[in-house]
Amino acid sequence: MFKKSRPILAMALIAMIIMTLAPATASAASGKKGFSKKSVTQANKMMKVAKSRLGKPYVSGATGPNSFDCSGFVYYCMKKSGIKFKRGTAASYKKKGYNVGRNIKKAQKGDIILYSSGGGIGHCALYMGKKKVIHATCSKGIAITRYNGFGQSVAAIIRTYTPGGEAVISQTTEDSDVDGMKYRVKGKKVNKIVKTNSAGRIKVKNLKSGKYTITPVDTPAKYEENSSKKIRVKNGKVTNVKFHNELTETTQDTTDNGQSEQGAA
Asked: In the chain, what percentage of residues exceed pLDDT 70?
């Protein structure tokens, strides 16, 4: 009796997940907050779980580990990634700002993409970045495809992880030498060196909320070395860090002498 009821229970579970994920039709929220309490840095863990199932067959109502349908696959990846997948109503997701709209440019790795073929929600997938999704397809089982390569249109993007913070380091100098200035970013399990572009800027993305120290590295000898700057990064927000390098007195004296000699000639 119980064995016969398992397919029915599985189908009921899938229906509940689809109802939970389906967005309301009103305007989308900003999507600065995800429904998972885990950091966006955990998105790679989810992708690892998802990729481990590549090629597993599509079976209606299946939730893994060796066969899946589309929503069963999303549920499996969430669970294996340690995400408490709260079951509720479509309205609860919209109200809390999890629906970020339909523009794929707004999607970030780990988001849930909901699809429609003209009616209600008919399919779901996990966004991998670079306009690719991983999902349970009828023909190939678990596969990686372009987000729009299977005849259904994006109905909503559901934010899974709250976007990390971002630090924008900008550099100005008394001359035009701003390309390739190096800075060490340290804090919250981050310790890396970044380098400015030709405009003297560098964006450091997906930083966990907390305190960081930005320190100049290998400042050219012609400049006075900047001191470190301490910043606080918040999830979903941009923190600007500005540095300005002044020429050293030796450099300025050399420049002044050169101009004086040229004037004397």
From this structure: 78
